[in-house]
Amino acid sequence: MSAEPLRQRQAGIRIRIAFIVATLAGAAFAVCYAVDAGEQALGLTIALAFGSIAYGLGAWARLLLPTGGYVQSREPSLRRPREESLLIQEFTEEPSPVNRRSLLGLLGLAGTTIGAALLFPLRSLYPPGQPAPLTELRQTPWRFGPRLVTTDGQPVRPTMVTTEATLTVLPEGNLEAGDAPAFVVRVPGPGQDGGTIHAYSLLCTHAGCPVALYESTTARVLCPCHQSVFDLRDAAKPIAGPAARPLPALPIAVDADGFLRATGDFTSPPGPGFWGR
Ligand code: FES
Fold it and tell me: Among the three residues 99, 125, 151, which one is the final residue of a domain in this structure?
C-alpha cells in the first residue's frame, strides 16, 4: 500500500476512536448526572466528549477532505492542463481507504449521545420530591395550624395585639423563612370596641422592604423605602407610593388555648415578584 492510502487509513482509525470516545464520554456524563457524581465528574466527562468531537472533526477536515484545485473561472472553452490533470486523477486514483459513511454514522451517534446527555440537567429544574419552582415561590411556611409567634418565639395571644403599634409575627417553627414575616395589629372599626385583629405580610409589595411604620390614627402602614402607604381599613390596598398590590392578608383564628393561629397561607404571594406584573 502506498503512503497516502496508509496515512488516510490511520487518520480514519483516529477519527473513529475520537467519535467513540465522545459517545462514551457523553453517556458517562449522563450516568454521572444520574448518580450525582459531582461537578468535577460532570465537567470532565462533558469536556472529554466535546474535546473528542472537536478533535475528530478537525482531523477529518485536515487529513481526509480534499483541498484546493476546484476553482473554475468562466473563460472560453480552451483546454486547461490543470483541470484536465485533476479530472484524470479523479478517475484514475485509488478510492479512499476510509469509509466515510461509517465516520458519519459514528459522528451522528456521538452527537446524539451528547445531545441526549445534555437534556439530563433539565431534570434539575424539577428536583424529584420537591415542589416545582413556581409552586415553591408561591407558597410560604404559613398554612393551617402554625401559631403566630413573636421574633423571639413567644406565642401571641389576642391581648398582646394593640391598636397603637404593629407586632411582627412569624410561623412557629419557621422563624428564618424570608417570605414569612407578617404583622398583626388591632384596627378599630366603626362602633367596634377594641377593634378587630388584622394580619398582613410585612413585606412591601413594591420592592420587599418591611412596612414598618404604623399610623394608628388612620390605620395605615407606611413603607420607609419609597413611601408606599397601605390602608388597613380597606384590605391593605396601596393608596400612595409605587406599590401596586395590596399587602397579602394572613387568615388567622384564636385556638382553644387562646393563641393566634394561621388558618392558611397568605391570600397572595408576599413581597414583589413576577406574579404581580
Ligand atoms: S419597597 Fe416599599 S415602597 Fe418601595
Answer: 125
User: Quick one: 121 and 156 in the same domain?
Assistant: no
Q: Measured from the CB, is residue 210 less than 6 Å from ligand 1?
A: no
| Residue at which a domain ends, from 96, 125, 154 | 125
Relative to the CA of 242, which ligand 1 atom is closest? 3
Per-residue pLDDT at 275 exceeds 70: no
* Residue 188 CB burial class (10 angstroms; 0-12, 13-18, ≥19): middle
Structural domain of 244: 137-276
User: Of 201, 209, 221, which is best to mutate to test ligand 1, by the most ligand atoms within 8 angstroms of its C-beta?
Assistant: 209
Note whether 113 and 23 are within 8 A (CB).
yes
For ligand 1, atom 4: residue with the closest CA? 226
Ligand 1 pocket, residue 51 CB under 6 Å: no
**Residue 98 or residue 207, greater confidence:** 207
**CA 208 / ligand 1 centre spacing (Å):** 6
DSSP structure string for 2-64: -HHHHHHHHHHHHHHHHHHHHHHHHHHHHHHHHTT--HHHHHHHHHHHHHHHHHHHHHIIIII
The reply to whether 142 and 120 lie within a common domain is: no
Q: Does the predicted model carry a pTM greater than 0.70?
A: no
pLDDT tens-digit profile of 138-163? 788 999 999 999 999 999 999 999 99
Closest Cα to atom 3 of ligand 1? 226
pLDDT(79) > 70: no
Contact yes or no for 236/223 (Cβ under 8 A):
no
